[in-house]
Amino acid sequence: MKKLLLPAFILLFCFNVQAQQEDEDGERNKETGFLKDENLGKNELSINALTLIAVGALDISYERNINEDSSWSTEFWVQFNEEIADEFYRDIAITGKYKHFFSSNYARGFYVHAFGMISNGDYGEELYYVGDQLVEQEEMKFTDFALGFGIGGKLISSGGFKADFSGGIGRNLFNSNSPTIVGQIMVNLGYRF
């Protein structure tokens, strides 16, 4: 039951974000009909504050808005905290995402995304025995590619500050030494320019 609380919270938050974004009554661009926040720019840089604090990993993102309904992003993850690294399998990961927004505002509000992730790290242990005696214990390294999807919500202030909350789940496809399921929970804070 506890495992369902976080996804339920993210889903409710995203719907709340969508409702707030649609209720805003700002000045609209006469050509596109969208709020003038599209003039803030099409590029966004952000950092995942949640993984930085909770996991000790640097997770930075660059996002480019394609149009008012969609964007693509690239994320780079590096694990720094050795104590937590034993509990967390990914050491390095590069993720590409495509986001589709369901808001009447320019590239913000509730969205769904698809992602592809290349990651490597240590997962499981390989044991070597001679007779009944354990001779060597070695961590198994992996490099794998995962495909997945998720949901989220993005808020953009009039000054360009960005808060993006999302969660996603995917599956590694090629290596039997890698974890089968990969997950992402993100609280990205950044700036649109």
UniProtKB/TrEMBL annotation:
Keywords, sorted A to Z: Signal
Leader sequence residues: 1-19
Protein's recorded name: DUF3575 domain-containing protein
